[in-house]
Amino acid sequence: MTPLMEELLIAVVKVLVIFSVLLTLFSLMTYAERRLLAFMQFRLGPNRTGPYGILQPVADGIKLFFKEEVVPEGANRWIFVAAPGVALVTAFLAIAVVPYGGPVTVFGREVSLQIADPDVGVLFIFAVSSLGVYGIVMAGWAANNKYALIGGLRSAAQMFSYELSLGLSWVGVILLAGSFRLPDIVEAQAGGFWRWNWIQQIVAFLVYTVAATAEVNRTPFDLPEAETELVAGFHTEYSSMRFALLQMAEYVNMITVAALGTNLFLGGWLAPFTSLQSLGGIDLGLLWFAAKMLSVLFFFIWLRGTLPRFRYDQLMQFGWKVLVPVAVLNILVTAAVVVLLAGSEPEAEPVAPTEVGLRSPVLLAGPAGALG
Amino acid sequence: MEALTHHALLLSLALFAVGVAGVFLRRNVITVLMCVELMLNAVNLAFVAFSRSLGTLDGQVLVFFVLTVAAAEAAVGLAIVIALHRNRDTLDVDAFSLLKG
Amino acid sequence: MIDAVLFYAFAALALGSALVVVGQRNPLYSAFALIVTLVSLSAIFALLGSPFIAVLQLVVYAGAIMVLFLFVLMLLNVKPEGDPPAGKGVLRTAAFLLVAVLVAEVGTVLWRATARVPPVFDASPRRVAHLLFSPQYVYVFEATSILILAALVGAVALARKET
Known about the structure:
heterotrimer, B: mainly alpha, Helix Hairpins, C: mainly alpha, Four Helix Bundle (Hemerythrin (Met), subunit A), 2 domains, 74% helix, globular
C-alpha cells in the first residue's frame, strides 16, 4: 500500500485506540470522582452497583441513554443540538496532539505515540481551546433560559480570561525548550526529576495549575455550573445524551489539561531517575506518563473536595489582575536568563525547509481529531 | 501561477466581493462590521497566497499585523456600537444620520 | 491530489458561509457563519503551507474577536432585521453593479496570471519570527503593541457606563 495509505491507517488506528482509552478513562473518572469525594467527605459514595460500585458508570450510561430528550420550547433548535457537538469536537481535537510516550517500534515501523505532531504543537492546543468557548456559549444561549444564558456567558468570560494566563505560562517552558513541539519540550526535561519544568519554571507551574483549573471550570472556579448558584448553569436545559456529551466534553478537557501539564511541567514520559526509564529492555515511558497524569487528575478531585468556590467577581479580578502580570513577569525573567546564558552566539539559519502543503500533520490531525 | 495559489487568489477575490456587497446591503451596524472583517480575511488570504508563490515570508508578517490591527479595530468598533445602542436604542444604520446634509 | 480535494472543500465551505453572513437576517446566525468562514480559512492557510498563521488566525480571529462579537450581540439582544424600507432598491442594484465591476476588474487580471512554481517554502514559526524581529519589522511590531494598548483604553472608555 502507498505511503499515504499507510500513514492514514496508522492515524486511524491511533485515533481508535486513544478514543477508546479516553472513553474508558472518562467513565472511570466519573466513578473515581464520586468515590473519592465521598471518602473525603466521610461517607461511602456509590458502592451498590457491582463490586465496590465499579459498574456505576455503566448504570449512569444506561440511564442517560434511555432518558427522554427534551428540547425546550422557544429554544433555537439547530444551535441547541449543535452545541454539545462543538464542545466535544474541540475537546477531542486538543487531545489529538498530546504525546503519550517516546517513539515506539511496531511491526518494524517507528511510530510516535501521538496522533499528529505539527510544528506548531502547543500553539495548536491553544487555538483549539480558544474554540472550546463556543460550545459553552452556544449551549447557554440556545436554551432560551436566563439561567443558562448567564451561566454560559459567565463561563465563556471565565474561560477566555484564564486562557490568556494559561498560554502565557507555557511561553517560559517553550523558551527553555526552544521549540513549540511537545516531544521536544519533553525531551528538554531529560535527566531526572529535578530537571523537569515544575522546578525550573515554578512560577509558570503554579500559574498553569490555577489557570488550568479555571479553564476546565473545576472547583474552585466552577461557579458557572454550580448547582447551588445558577440551577445548573449553561447545561440547565440539557437532558439525556446531550447532557452526557457535555459532561464528556468537560472531562475530556480535564484529561487534556492534565496530560498537557504532565508533558509541559512534569517531564511527560520520563522517569524521575534515569535508571528507572526502562525495565529489562521494556520502555516504561507510557507507565510513567499514566502515573503522572492520574496523579494530576487525583489532584483535581482533591481540590474539588477541599476548596470552596470563588465568587465570580473575585474570580475575574484574580485572573486579570494577578495571574496575567505574574505570568508576564515569569516570561520576562525567563527570557532574560535564556538570553544571558546563551551569550551572543548568532543564531544559525534554520535547517531544511519542509515540504509544502498537505503532508503537514496539522491536516491529518484535524480529521483524525474530529473523528475521535 | 500554480493551481493552488491561483485558486486561493480567486477565492480571496470572491470573499472580498461578498464582503463589499455585505457592507452595501446590510442594515445592522454589527453585521456591517462583520462584513468588514470578512474583507480583511480575504486580504489575509491573498497575502498568504502571494507569500507562498513568491517564496518570501513578508506576506506572513503582514498577515500578522493585519490580524493585530483587525483585533484592535473590532474592539473599538464594538465599543462604539455599544455606546450607540445606549444612546439610540437601535442598531439600524439609517438611524445614525444626524450629520446628514 | 488530496491537497486539491481538501482545498476545494474548505473553499466551498468558506464561500458558502460568507454568503450566509451577508444573506442571513439574524445577526447572530451571521456571526456563527463568520466563525465557520474563519475556521475554514485557517485550514486553507495550513494547506498553503503557513501553519503559524493558521494557528494565529484561530487564536486571534476565531477565538477572541468573534467571541467579542457574540458577547455584544447576546448582551444587546439584537433582533433580526426587518424588511428594507421602500426606495432601497436603487441601493441594492447599485451594490450588485459595483461588486460586479470589482470582480470583473480583478478577475481579468488574476485569470490571466502566468504559471509559476513556488520554490520550496518553509514558513515555520522560527523563520517567521526571524523576519518579524529583524530590523525591517521590529519597530512596526512594537508600534502594534502600543496600538493595542490604545485600542484597549479606548474600548473601555467608550463602552463604560456614565456613572
